[in-house]
Amino acid sequence: MFRQSTLKTVLIAFTLFFAAYVSLPTMLGPDRMKAITGMLPSFLVPKGAIKLGLDLRGGVHVMLETDKAGLARDLVRQLQEDVRRVLRTERVAPTGGIVAQNRGVSFRVADAAARTRIMPKIQELSVPVSNAVLGNTGQRSLEVVDLGDGLIQLVITDAELNERIRRAVDQSIEIFRRRIDPEGVKEPSIQRQGLDRIVVQVPGAQNSKEITDVLQPGKLEFRMVAEPGANPAEIETLPYTDEGGGTIQVERRVLVRGEDLTSAEPTFDQRTGEPVVSFRFNVKGAQAFAKVTTENVGKPFAIILDNKVISAPRIISPITQGQGQISGRFTVERANALSILLRSGALPASFTLVEERTVGAGLGADSIDAAILASIVSLVAISIFTLATYGVFGVIALVALAVNFLLLVALMALIGSTLTLPGIAGIVLTLAIAVDSNVLIYERIREEQAAGRSAISSLDSGFTRALATILDANITGFLAHAILYFVGTGAVKGFAVTTCLGLGTTIFTAFTLTRMMVAAWYRWFKPKSVPI
Amino acid sequence: MKLLRLVPDNTRFGFMRFRSVTFPLSALLSIVSVVTFLWLGMNVGIDFKGGTVVELQARADRANIAQIREEASKLGLGEVEIQEFGSPRDVILRVGLQEGGDAAQAQVVIKLRTAFEATHEFRRVEVVGPRVSQELVQNGTIGVLLAIMVILIYLWFRYEWQFAVGAVIATMHDLVLTIGFYAVTQIQFDQTSIAAILTIIGYSLNDTVVVYDRVRELLRKYKKIGLHELLDLSMNSTLSRTIITSITAILALIALAVFGGDTIRGFCLAMLFGIVVGTYSSIFVAAPILIYLGVRVGEGVGVAAGNADKAVNSGATK
Q1: Is the pLDDT assigned to residue B33 strictly greater than 90?
Q2: How far is B103 from chain A, CA to nearest CA, in Å?
Q3: Domain of B298: which CATH number?
Q4: Residue B111 sits in which domain range?
Q5: Who among B110, B248, B258 is closest to A382 (CB)?
Q6: Are the Cβ atoms of A468 and B312 closer than 8 angstroms?
Q7: Selection from A433, A462, A417, A453 nearest residue A529 by Cα
Q8: What ipTM was assigned to the predicted interfaces of this complex?
Q9: Within a domain: residue B84?
């Protein structure tokens, strides 16, 4: 053990250096990091610090769940329409109409000839279910069942329903992102959880109402931009998100609402070829819009989504057909984004809040203070105890402990993990148990020496025998926490990650650094016996 | 410098002798745990039963409990449990699950905010709906059982079956006693408690594995000594390590429990209890049970285990 290869030493040194480098942003904090950033070329500046969990920095965590039954109802209604259309084109009248069921529709066509005629068309309603990730899933959207006696049933498959839920959740995530963080400064985390849930975390938010508000359907409005000298009581100032931002004054009177919009698509202007957004109103919206645009040619109107003006185009000519286009020096991306915005103005599904955890900034700060104090006290206690028990070998144990901590911080920063209050408890406990690997080695050395071996021989066999035990013990611990990671949620997951990483770094330091330090100590002092 | 020596060298303590005391004691404690659990139940937090918890801090010097109680009763939320904690300004309100599912549940906080926002700071708000809480119960239970199973399989591969069974019995012992601890102390049982339980299981197994490693080693080394004596020898030679490691963990946890704040105190206390019990069970349950499981001297040495150790030996001496 005492002839450590140079390569190994260099590798260990490199690991430590790299760990220290990666931990810099976490250890220094954002302010001091900025000072360094100025001095180094940008590719040399380490990025990514450990993030503080909401329980430490304060903020709102909510979990929302899609109304699956509602989505299924929408699908059934749509299916009913489709079947009605097919039957009408084929001039077949079902006996007793088209009956909506929980997960599909059924209808009866007594006439066998008519049935044979329509069946291929009905079969065509069932399309392959495709998935954004997997592409074609090989499953179809409908199951067509002939129940006999002229009764035909169409059942929406699980694949189709799940795919619709998935899409609704994806769209809603986009809508939530836009609404929760219009200025792009809050660093919210909005993620799908499972099939039908969304977890929204907003650091620094104090009241979940900010988030539950976006559960309301999207509000799209068309109003006129206020003219100079307009009555102040009739106008209001709204943020303007197009073309450089700022604010814009608009009339309070709403001309047409989002409910009356039937579509919005990115297209190209036929004359100029520039990207535009084409939209279409229903009859009611078209009439209202025709009236307004006829009266206001040349004036700008405002398209307002959730109380923000997303575009303020000028009315070039009266729009009487219920369709028109929004131009405004858009790029293709912008036109696309805008049309998505217009289309997704209303949430595709309704959501219910199923879990909320809000921590006020005050409590968060108190928790950090308490956690830091507790960590320092426990580390000091562990240090004193270790030094008293093992003397010079205690120093080696503490160096190994410090390195363990450094590696843990580096790994957590690398994988971008979040530090929670139970996570801190986990770190402290991990460090306490990391000392165990040194204890195992030292006790073994002590035993070997008591059994009459020489210093070098007891050091050697002490390490060799203890390491097998350390591996066994840490692997069992690792298994327990790996499972905790898979079944746990939120703060508990963080705790499991920390502990698993800690067990890994413990094994690493025990096998490399501790051994290296003990070997160096032996070469230096050449002792007759080991003072353990 | 004189070093601290907690366990004198050449300690020869007859641990196995005590099994006639410790087995009944463990059985008794397990029964007490189960009975208390069935009789008192646990103080289950909203993670597992659903409901709303808010932590308020009065903007005035002192929270007026009577007034809070009166206003809360007017909100029509059913019974609102009001509890002082920490400083006289701090109050916790607990509201049970509402009739009418998640939507009604979400209204609770809005009503509470309307009533108390002006006079109190909302330090913490937690709402868990009925379905989420059910899932958390399910996941927690599955997690603990799965962890025990996976570890059992690992130990079975690594040692002989007697050791795996012994470790699982010791682990179940710790699990039952920890649940008893939650029932007796009425410390709130929530998601972090599952983390605590799994950590306890991890620690206890770690301890058991260290002891078993030594038992196996000595079984291989001494073919002539009786099992009883051999187990005692194993316990004594690992005793110093067992105690030093436990003390280290206990020191860390005491500091966390005292200074770490209310949120993690319950978590730390449970873990303290678990580490004491886990250490006890490794020595007084896991080891003596091997006598009954039929480990025999000269036999308990699997070929695979022997090879594995040789591999470590040769790897380490290169």
Answers
A1: yes
A2: 6
A3: 1.20.1640.10
A4: 51-128
A5: B248
A6: yes
A7: A453
A8: 0.84
A9: yes
